[in-house]
Amino acid sequence: MAETENTSTPSAVVPATPPAAPGQLIKTQILQAPSTPLIATPKGTVKVTPQRSLRTPLNLDPIPARRSSTRSIKRKKFDDELVESSLIKTERTTGRIKTPIVPPAPAVEKVEVPVSVVAPPPPEPPAPIPEKKIKLPPPSNNARPAKSSAKRNKKQRAAVQTSMKDLGRWKAQDDLLLINAVQQTNDLSIVHLGVKFSCHFTLKEIQERWYSLLYDQQISKLSVQAMKMLHPDVMKQVQCKALYNNKEEELLGHIPSTKIPSLEKFQELINENPDVFHPARTPKALHTHWLLMKQYHLLPDQSVQPMPRGDHILNFSDAEDVMNDEDLLDQKDDVVERELAIADRRSKREIRYLEQEMPKLQVLVDNVTGISPPDFDNQTLAVLRGRLVRYLMRSKEITLGRATKDNNVDVDLSLEGPAWKISRQQGVIKLRNSGDFFIANEGKRPIYIDGKPVAKGNKQKLFHNSVVEISSLRFIFLINEELIKVMRTDVPKIIPTVS
């Protein structure tokens, strides 16, 4: 093969190389494969090499290509350009250009033809890819958990404070009362009306406390711990205050109101119905509740007094209710109200004066008419009349109170109604030689005579039609004026003989 040189384009002319051995040719092609382009022509394949390849011997390695770094120049960064170091490292590692490794071309016999070909310009080095700067907030990996933990601790502290506040107002006895009452009635409104807590709670507060005991784990845990620390006697006393449900009152209603049941009867009820009655029920407690039901006409065999219709008024309480209803319809005037208050005060003073004069007037009326009340006989000095029972006073001194196995009294007030707040020796009624009756209080609670309290150790004079109020029981004291008049006339005869 002859070498041809084109003088017009010396940089693009490819001189022909002498034939070499097969091994040397393969080595040269392998070394020059990545940087020597091949051009296909109709007559064969032409190898295009740069001018400097003429000076490079075939048996030497080519000069390695220049490597440029893609790292950014380090400079001082401002606060708004601070980035996460881990992200920068990741960006750098992923931002580098990885040049693919081209496998060596297989050895092929080439037929070189002297053709003048313009070689393309050498490839420009790739421009470095600009590194994207990600603006992130200052590193706060430790600050965020601290902030969230601080919020969590604050919420927990607030919850503990509220729970401790509720626990301080709601005592363990109140929680136990609430739980027992809800289990008995299943109605929070009835619990609000019927249960007496250590302090006043509204219906909303009771509902919130009940839901807290059900669903708030922390408050429920504290409440259970407080209830477990209660003394057994205190816990028993609280359980005895549990409300009565409808089934218990139905069983108590089977006992007729015309009979006076014994405690054994209530014990039989408890033994026959252990699944109905509360575990803290005792025969005495059932008897007390039965007396309450009897007093308020709640037993099935009792007839309730009908309400008055029209102008038919049965007693003073009904008249007072009618007046109160009329007051609601009228518009109030301050001047008129003041005048009415003054007139009401005067009328009450006159009524009090007339009540004090009633015994004297009653004696005059009895002397004129000659009719004695049917409540008295020749041996009855006075009568203490209640709603259900009449107590006859046939001696000059009688005792009032609550009868027990070890204590007997002349007037057993438990026959009239609930008497658990009445002392066993509540008082004494005496008749003096002058014909005057006096009542002396010997119990813990006061006795009210016509609305005036008589404390322990004091005494008060009793008149005819005086209202005697002991606990929740009211009586009217009636005097046998004829017998007292006879006694007064006999006193002057007896005194000289005694002296």
Write the layout of secondary structure elements.
Blueprint: H1 22-32, E1 38-41, E2 44-47, H2 85-95, H3 143-169, H4 172-185, H5 188-194, H6 203-215, H7 217-228, H8 232-239, H9 246-253, H10 263-272, H11 283-295, H12 316-329, H13 334-369, E3 382-385, E4 390-393, E5 397-401, E6 411-412, E7 427-431, E8 437-441, E9 447-449, E10 452-454, E11 459-462, E12 466-470, E13 473-479, H14 481-498
Helix pairs in contact: 3-7, 4-7, 4-8, 6-7, 10-11
Search tags:
five-stranded mixed β-sheet, DNA repair, disordered C terminus, six-stranded antiparallel β-sheet, alpha+beta, disordered N terminus, single chain, 5 domains, 499 residues
Task: Describe the structure in brief.
The protein is α+β, with helices and mostly antiparallel strands and 499 residues long.
What does this structure look like?
The protein is an alpha+beta fold and 499 residues long. The protein has helices at residues 22-32, 85-95, 143-169, 172-185, 188-194, 203-215, 217-228, 232-239, 246-253, 263-272, 283-295, 316-329, 334-369, 481-498, and strands at residues 38-41, 44-47, 382-385, 390-393, 397-401, 411-412, 427-431, 437-441, 447-449, 452-454, 459-462, 466-470, 473-479. Residues 1-20, 41-74, 121-158 are annotated as: Disordered. It is found in: Chromosome, Centromere, Kinetochore; Cytoplasm, Cytoskeleton, Microtubule organizing center, Centrosome, Centriolar satellite; Cytoplasm, Cytoskeleton, Spindle pole; Lysosome.
